Amino acid sequence: MAKQNVAEQFVDILARAGVRRMYGVVGDSLNPVVDAVRRNAAIDWVHVRHEEVAAFAAGAEAQITGKLTACAGSCGPGNLHLINGLYDAHRSMAPVLALASHIPSSEIGLSYFQETHPERLFAECSHYSEMISNPQQMPRLLQTAIQHAIGQRGVSVVTLPGDVADQPAPDRSFESALVTSRPTIRPGDAEIDRLVEMIDQADKVTLFCGAGTAGAHAEVMEFAGRVKSPVGHALRGKEWIQYDNPFDVGMSGLLGYGAAYEATHECELLVLVGTDFPYNAFLPDDVKIAQIDVRPEVIGRRSRLDLAVWGDVRETLRCLIPRVREKTDRRFLDKMLKKHADALEGVVKAYTRKVDKHVPIHPEYVASVLDELADDDAVFTVDTGMNNVWAARYIQPNGRRRIIGSFSHGSMANAMPMAIGAQLVDRNRQVVSMSGDGGFTMLMGDFLTLVQQDLPVKIVLFNNSALGMVELEMLVAGLPSYGTTDVNPDFAEVARACGVFGVRVEKPKQLAGALKDAFKHKGPALVDVVTDPNALSIPPKIKADMVTGFALSASKIVLDGGVGRMLQMARSNLRNVPRP
């Protein structure tokens, strides 16, 4: 049997770590690795049209599966294109191994054609970024990179010169066990004791939950019931905590709705649960705050804390539940539930009057109909901008759906690339890309990847021919909108020219039928919905110091934002509030 080269051993180690796909664009320095993938039955090469898409797709797959994924770019410009998608994956805590192939090792540092320094360039968007300069390094260095990505939940980057990849591999006897899963972290006894004391002393407790509550829904509900706490959430916590939640008071922050803001400000003790909520202007500064998180580096960086608790959310709550005293006074909880329902009642009216006749179509109506027609286990990938608003307020989680977006990095053009990675995990699961026309056209070349890979992704294109969020930002600054208008084609015709099912919707009565037809279609499909460019949204609570990166306007074109079927849940929860 011929001796392996470094590239073949590299791919074997990735396969042992559970990697099933490597996304990328082929190139000369990458050829040894791509050829090794071709000859390894355990890993598929997913050819995309742009390396940024490769990184977004790998990050989405990692978020869906929780397992290590991989992407690759050739030397210089090839791997540079990975950087935006890797930033997103890293900030989303998605375990991704990125291979940055490099120029010939003998030419490094001599301004060779396409020379960059990947080990430096990717340092800020990774937990680990190192270069293999000798075949003997490779197994240990790659194992270290894998364990950083999995253990710290984020990106590792390995730089590999093409000539080194083609050299004979070191002895396989080095192979050792790989870390492929994370441990459970329990807080120290002193922190548990202090948190129990703080909870027992407070008459009004609020929980504010983030993505760290994944897998802990039952524990959060049991704990909230025990201490009679309202439960609010950040955007990344929505899919994990909002469903089947009789304590729900909505979402705080720039896309917020309901009574989450009031609940966090009117309590005596606020417990931040698995959230690195970035908008400290929405957090109170005059109540006691405790924070529970498995990542000690994020604890206390958004607000002043009275107690820091380092531990997994589920394990921490399991420690707390039997020890905290059960509260009997529901007055604070019931007050917040009523405020929440009243808030939703008020804003929902803006989009219940003749929405089925309004032309151009209200985007809120599109999101609402999409929510009703999509599968109960659908994966929604969401473009940054106004699509974040519509997904946050209309797409309802249920414990089986997933909602993925560039929620921490805030990149345009993420939805369709993420849909590629999500769909490759399971071709039989419905994947819906909620794309804006700005984001879609930015990386539109990879629309062809759906065709080439025969991926049944359904793209619902919110086409308002504008960069809506940017227009809103200009509005608050007192500036006329400029440079925000898109001159778009009929995207349905573009889709059909690419061999994809395409339909254009200009009237509300056409919408449901078009979505049903697209969902029934076995291959990729695009529904181009012409939406109202004047449909904008603002948070329910906002002050001057909250508007960085967002906007506020008293203009009549700015609406307060609907909330769809969340109102039904709020009304249902309100039935449990005792009447005087």
UniProtKB/TrEMBL annotation:
Classification via Gene3D superfamilies: 3.40.50.970, TPP-binding domain
Keyword presence, Ligase: no
Signal peptide: none
InterPro entries for this protein: DHS-like_NAD/FAD-binding_dom (IPR029035), POXB-like (IPR047211), THDP-binding (IPR029061), Thiamin_PyroP_enz_cen_dom (IPR012000), Thiamin_PyroP_enz_TPP-bd_dom (IPR012001), TPP_enzyme_TPP-bd (IPR011766), TPP_POXB-like (IPR047212), TPP_PYR_POXB-like (IPR047210)
Lineage: Bacteria, Bacillati, Actinomycetota, Actinomycetes, Kitasatosporales
Gene Ontology molecular function: any one: thiamine pyrophosphate binding
Name the record gives this protein: Pyruvate dehydrogenase
Family that this chain belongs to: Belongs to the TPP enzyme family.
Residue ranges occupied by any Thiamine pyrophosphate enzyme central domain in the UniProt entry: 192-320
Superkingdom of origin: Bacteria
Pfam family, one: TPP_enzyme_C
Species name: Streptomyces seoulensis
